[in-house]
Every structure is written in C-alpha cells, then in structure tokens.
Amino acid sequence: MQIYTNALSANEQINNSGDKFIITRKIDMPAGYQGPLHHHSWYQLMYASKGILHVEYQNQIMLVPPQKAVWLAPTCDHRITAPIGAKFHSLYFRPDVVAKMSDKNKVLDITPLARELILSIGNISHKQVLDKTEQRLIQVLIDQLALQSNNALSLLIPSDKRLNQLITQLIKEPSNSLSIEEWSTTLAISSRTITRIFNKEVGVGFKEWRQKVRLLEAVNLLEQGEMSVTEIALEIGYNSPSAFTYAFKQVFENSPVAYLKKH
Questions:
Q1: Which are the contacts of 136, defined by CB distance < 8 A and separation ≥ 6?
Q2: Nearest Cα to Cα of residue 51 among 36, 67, 37, 35
Q3: What is the CATH code for 3-147?
Q4: Integer Cα distance of 120 and 41 in angstroms
Q5: Tens digits of per-residue pLDDT, 124-173?
Q6: Low-confidence residues of the chain, pLDDT below 70?
Q7: Model pTM?
Q8: pLDDT at 239 (0 to 100)
Q9: Which pLDDT belongs to residue 31?
Q10: Is the alpha carbon torsion for 221, 45, 74, 10 positive or negative?
Q11: Residue spans per domain, the chain
C-alpha cells in the first residue's frame, strides 16, 4: 500500500492518488490561522494534538480540542481556523476503505489508542509503500473510529462577528469571569443582543456556553495528568473543587476522577 504526505495540496494528492487509499497531512498552524472554504472527494479526519481547532461546516462552527476530532464526509464544504494555534493532523480516506464509517459529519471522542494511531500513521507517512504491519495500524484506527458515537459535549461557536473578541478570549482563558453585562460594555452591544445571538446560533445561553468551554478544557487538563482536580477547578474558573465536580457530573455523569479512570 502507498501513502502520500503533504508535499502537494490534499486535493492534488487525491487527484493523483492512483491506487492509494490514504493521505496524511501535518500543519503547524500559527495563532490566527484561517483556511479557505473547501471540500474533498474523500473522507477526512481532522485532529489537533495541541491547540484548538474551529471547524466550520453545514452553517455551524465546532470547537475541537485535543481529545476530539472531526469526521467529514466527501464534498462537505468546510473551513478551519486556529485562533490560538494548533498542531493539525489530517487523514484522508478513499471512500471504499471506510465503508463501516457513517456518512454523517460528526465530532468524535479520540481515545488514547486512537490518538497514538493518528500520530503513528502520520509519522510513517514519508514512506511511499507501507508494509502489512503499517497497513494493520490504519485498519485498527478505522475500527476505533467506527466505534465512536457523535460526542455529547461538542461545542457550537456563534458565527456572529460581533462576538469574536468574547469567543477568542474565553477559549484562550476559560477562567474569564466577566459577566454578560461587562461583556456588553466591552463589545459595545447590549446584553440582550448577546443573549439573543447565543440562543439563536448555538441553542444555549452565555453562561451555559461558557461552562461547556470550561468543561472541555477540564477534560483536556485531566487527560494531560499534570494537575490535581483542585488545581484544574481553580485554573478554569471555579471557586471550589466541589462546584467543579458538581458541574462535571451534570454533563459526564461521573466525577472527574471516575471519568479519568474510564478513559
């Protein structure tokens, strides 16, 4: 089996793929990176091993931290931005080799095994021909992805440009505790307008959206394993570990410690 790297654009590689059925790309996206709206004729898996991606597709923008990935079906128009920068990994699969995968675009949980497989496949992508062991790695990854359901904590991002400063600041600093009234003053728009934008574009209010941002960052910090629950609670803006644990249980039905043991 042969594999392509990122010497050419993804669509150029796909068009010249011949009998190849996978392409991998790695990009160090600087803070503020914004790609063009585009699509591919193959399935695409997008993952950031560091940083956060904003992936725009089907009139929505999804926030994708390192424990998530986006699966896109062929011909789906999409755009990628990285407000705080990201180490971007993308795998493109010829449609016939991922028949067990859903045609639906979705955000997936990335298990530690899937993460290592994505990185390993990227690291062997300089080879033009893969041996049987390397081919099996790709099949195991496909099997892992097929087991994942659409993630419950996927986070929609308002597309209204009037909220760009608010969105960027909260993602960069989840502990930010400015009230909606304070943001109203900063952005020079009414708090009622901010509320209306959130409810219309993402289906939840400002406070609930901010809590989701914090919990996504909490999962990221838990999986890094470098901070205690108390440290994480304070880092992301909760006044106490108990308040953080309560909010975490409301979404994940487990305490932070129990969640980590299961993942």
A1: none
A2: 67
A3: 2.60.120.810
A4: 24
A5: 765 667 788 888 999 999 999 988 876 656 678 888 999 999 998 998 89
A6: 1-8, 125-128, 150-154, 262-263
A7: 0.71
A8: 94
A9: 87
A10: positive
A11: 3-147, 159-262
Alpha-carbon distance of 22 to 138, in angstroms, equals 9
The answer to whether the CB of 142 falls within 8 A of the CB of 98 is yes
- The residue type at 87: K
96: left (phi over 0), alpha (psi -120 to 50) or beta: alpha
Backbone angles phi, psi at 22, to 5 degrees: -145, 145
At 217 the pLDDT is: 86
Token pair recorded at residue 166: 């608010």
- The single-letter code of the amino acid at 59 is N
Cα separation of 122 and 179, whole Å?
A: 43
- In the block, which residue shows the tokens 């930010």? 176
* Helix, strand, coil percent content, the chain, rounded in steps of 5: 45, 20, 35
Q: List the structure tokens of 3.
A: 């594999």
Closest CA relative to residue 91, chosen from 2, 144, 24:
24
Q: What is the pLDDT of residue 103?
A: 80
Which is the CATH superfamily of the domain at 159-262?
Homeodomain-like (1.10.10.60)
**Residue type at 37?**
L
DSSP at 253: S
